[in-house]
Amino acid sequence: MSILHAPVRILGFGSPLMGNDGVGLKVIEVLQKTELASLEDLDIEDAGVCGLDLLNLLDGARKVIIVDAILADSPAGSVHRIEGRDLLNGTEFHPLLSVHDLTITDVLKIGEQVQTLPEIVVIGIEIGVVVTEATREISPEVLEGVDESIRLIREEISSIL
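C-alpha cells predicted for Hydrogenase maturation protease:
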C-alpha cells in the first residue's frame, strides 16, 4: 500500500549531495511553497533515490509526474516532457542512475509486470554530465530548467484537478 494517498502525485528524484542530480528535488522544494501544496488531490513529495520503492509511490495513483535529472544530449537546463509509455517502449532518454543502479525506466518495466501502472509523465531536466564528486551546488544552467519544469507540471495538473 502506498504511503501517499492523492490520486495525482508529483515525485522529485535525485540526490541533494550530488549537485545537478538534485535538480528534481529543487523543483519539489519550490512546488511545496506554492498554492499547489494545499490541493487535497495532489501529493508533492521528495522521492530521493528510492529505486524499487518507486513502485509503492505509484500504487493507487491515477497520474504520477516524475521530475528527475536526465542525460539526453541536449544543452544543460533543457527540459523534456517524456511519456512513461515511451520510456517503456524504448525512447532514448536516460534518467540518471540512482544509488541502487536502477533507472526510472528499469523500475517501470518491473512495475508493469507486477502491478497496474498509473499514467506517468517524466519531466526531465538535462544536466549535461554526471556529477562524480559530492556537492550541494546545482549549476546555474541546470537551475534555469526549474521554472520551465514548474510550468509544464502546472499544465499537466490543470487539466485533471
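DSSP finds five helices and six strands in the chain.
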